[in-house]
């Protein structure tokens, strides 16, 4: 199986600008069947200059033009137009033309989010909420935020690691919120709490969990830091 073999769905991204460049880079890397659809010559030329081969210039307000796209069931139709009015109109048109496709739309306000829901978007990425969450993390969790940014921008090896809490560990009986993982340069992602269930619980679920012997925690960090922390759990 090649790098793209596991991805059977195609993606059509409607809109291309500097603000949306990160989406094109991410989707273009993961999906072989990735197309960029634009309605302005300037955006078309920029996408081509950035190295994308499958770029189409068409009038997205024309249903007949949209119908020429070869869209299969469960393909992704991603609406990222900078003009939120046009984005809502496009979402509505794509939902009507391709009812079995998955329409994903970006929103920059709660008001726009409501309009996109009414227009038939299957999934909405609320940039307003994403930004709010990031601001909250910067203000209330600055160490963790900086560590995540370092992990995502560094060339050093980092990964996830599952670690069982052994008998006699100093972590046994400690509440999750009372332990500062950042002092060990790792971030807790979640855990399997045997007292509650055998299912994985993300740390963002809001549950007040306690670490007990036999629980399994999952952390992210640099490999060397993860190994040191695993040894710490045995103390």
Structure notes:
Helix 2 (41-49) links the parallel strand 2 and strand 3. The chain has 235 residues and is α/β, with parallel strands linked by helices. It has helices at residues 21-30, 41-49, 63-66, 84-97, 110-119, 127-140, 142-153, 223-232; strands at 11-14, 34-38, 55-57, 76-79, 102-107, 123-126, 158-164, 186-192, 200-202, 216-222. The chain folds into two domains: 11-132, NAD(P)-binding Rossmann-like Domain (Rossmann fold, 3-Layer(aba) Sandwich), CATH 3.40.50; 153-232, Regulator of K+ conductance, C-terminal domain (Alpha-Beta Plaits). It is built from eight helices and ten strands.
Q: Judging from the principal axes of the Cα atoms, what is the shape?
A: elongated
Strand content range: 15-25%
**Roughly how many Å apart are the termini?**
44 Å
Number of strands: 10
What name goes with the CATH superfamily of the largest domain?
Answer: NAD(P)-binding Rossmann-like Domain
Q: How many domains?
A: 2
CATH topology of the largest domain: Rossmann fold
Query: In DSSP terms, counting alpha (H) and pi (I) runs of 4 or more, how many helices?
Result: 8
CATH architecture of the largest domain: 3-Layer(aba) Sandwich
- Spatial strand arrangement across the major sheet: 3-2-1-4-5-6
* Global structural class: alpha/beta
Write the H/E string, N to C.
Answer: EHEHEHEHEHEHHEEEEH
Computed Rg? 22 Å
Determine and state the CATH class of the largest domain: Alpha Beta
Calculate the mean pLDDT score and round it.
80
């Amino acid at each position: 199986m090649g790098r793209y073999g596991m991805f059977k769905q195609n993606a059509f991204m409607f809109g291309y600008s500097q603000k949306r460049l990160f989406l094109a880079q991410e989707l273009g890397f993961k999906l072989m069947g990735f197309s960029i659809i634009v309605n302005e010559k300037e955006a078309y030329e920029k996408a081509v200059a950035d190295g994308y081969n499958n770029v189409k210039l068409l009038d997205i307000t024309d249903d007949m033009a949209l119908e020429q796209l070869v869209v299969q069931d469960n393909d992704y139709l991603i609406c990222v137009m900078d003009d939120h009015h046009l984005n809502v109109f496009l979402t509505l048109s794509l939902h009507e033309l391709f009812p079995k496709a998955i329409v994903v739309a970006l929103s920059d306000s709660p008001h726009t989010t409501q309009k996109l829901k009414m227009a038939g978007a299957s999934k909405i990425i609320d940039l307003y909420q994403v930004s709010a969450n990031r601001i909250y993390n910067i203000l209330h969790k600055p160490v963790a935020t900086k560590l995540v940014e370092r992990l995502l921008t560094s060339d050093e090896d980092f990964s996830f690691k599952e670690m069982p809490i052994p008998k006699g560990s100093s972590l046994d009986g400690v509440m999750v919120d009372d332990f500062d993982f950042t002092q060990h340069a790792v971030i807790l992602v979640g855990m399997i709490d045997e007292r509650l269930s055998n299912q994985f619980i993300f740390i963002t679920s809001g549950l007040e969990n306690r670490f007990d012997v036999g629980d399994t925690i999952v952390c992210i960090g640099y490999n060397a830091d993860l190994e040191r922390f695993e040894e710490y759990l045995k103390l």
